[in-house]
Amino acid sequence: MITFRRMVPEDADALAVVEEKCFSVPWSREAFWRDASNTDAYYLLAIDTGQNDRIIGYVGCWILAYEGSITNVAIDPEYRRQGIGRKMLLKLIEIVKEKGVTALTLEVRVSNAPAISLYEGLGFKSVGQRPKYYTNPVEAAEIMWKTHL
Questions:
Q1: Annotation says 107 is catalytic
Q2: Do 92 and 103 form a contact (C-beta atoms < 8 A)?
Q3: Cut 0.85: pTM above it
């Protein structure tokens, strides 16, 4: 069974493992530790309770006044295409809305069609691109906003 909970600093090692599996330029364990300790950040974890509470994914959000900026969305490749990312994002939207957030933004690689489709299905709209935003490989980012939570 998959459950969700807020990240704590002690989760940093497990998040770094997921991050390494998902991204060509992964964030460090220290970056997760800092964000877990930051009151303006909220990270929601996806946990597989059938696998000794293994962390299999996460979504991070920095909250700045009434806006949230989604930092990363990651699901272990073994668990993709099961609807976990969608459920996790819906839960995050519910949580940040309760914190007063009225709009969310994110960037996604322009080539990441599955993620763009997921975000569009959740009501995010493209508002432009950031050229050369990503490295390894160099690629533009699609800028997306959801303005009505």
A1: yes
A2: no
A3: yes
